[in-house]
Amino acid sequence: MKKNKNLQNKIDNIIYAIFGKIISKKIKPNYLTIIRFFLIPLIYFLLINEMLALGFFIFIVAASTDFLDGTLARKRNQITDIGKIIDPIADKLLIGTALIYLGTEYLIIKIFLVIISFEILAVLTSGFLSRFFGRPLGANVFGKIKMILQSVAVAFFLFGRIFDFKIMIILSEVVLVCALVFAIASGIEQSRLKLKKIKTAKI
């Protein structure tokens, strides 16, 4: 756990060193999350209308806000309970929307769409149960790695479609399989932490 926190701190320091001075302190992390929500339907509209280059660019921007809002929240001590709920939901809707466009004929995409549906339900349930068992949990390191891999996979796929590079589409599927491993690890870790929290609350 300590190693995970140290790794997160190092990543946060790098991201904040690059963007911390650029982004005004008036811009709250949750604002970036809300922007991500608004970009999701725009991305889907661009993709289904074959404006792939622009859709690819907007997707990269939207995915980047995920890393920025988390870093800003931690570095500026602006972590909120609502942020712990809406941030992962925005992430999952972003990835899920992109995967639906990429094609449900791929087995790995079907698997991820099912996982994402359960993850959204779990986040909402966790937010509701926080009334009884305390504040909602934030993302763990496995979940963050999963999100990075999913974003890379979508980017590879879109890049392959834009420039007709079939190898990139194959790489996309490989990266998604790797992301699946971290998705399972993230789910196990979240379950472990929630059970621990429930036991503590009962005591």
What does the model show?
This protein is mainly α. It has one domain (2-202): Four Helix Bundle (Hemerythrin (Met), subunit A). The chain contains 7 helices and no strands. Helix 4 packs antiparallel against helix 5 (107-133). The two termini are 23 Å apart. The relative contact order is 0.11. The model has no long low-confidence stretch (mean pLDDT 85).
Spell out the blueprint of helices and strands:
Elements (H helix, E strand, L loop, with lengths): L1 H18 L9 H20 L3 H24 L5 H22 L4 H27 L7 H23 L2 H37 L1
Which blocks of ≥5 consecutive residues have pLDDT under 50?
Answer: none
Which CATH C-level class is it? Mainly Alpha
Task: Please identify the structural class as seen in this structure.
Answer: mainly alpha
Shape descriptor = globular
Write the H/E string, N to C: HHHHHHH
Strand content: under 5%
**Tally of separate helices:** 7
* Mean pLDDT reading: 85
Main β-sheet description? none
**If you consult CATH, what is the topology?**
Four Helix Bundle (Hemerythrin (Met), subunit A)
Task: Evaluate the radius of gyration.
Answer: 17 Å
Report how far the terminal alpha carbons are from each other: 23 Å
CATH architecture designation: Up-down Bundle
Number of spatially distinct domains: 1
Percent of residues in helices: over 70%
Question: How many runs of DSSP E, i.e. beta strands?
Answer: 0
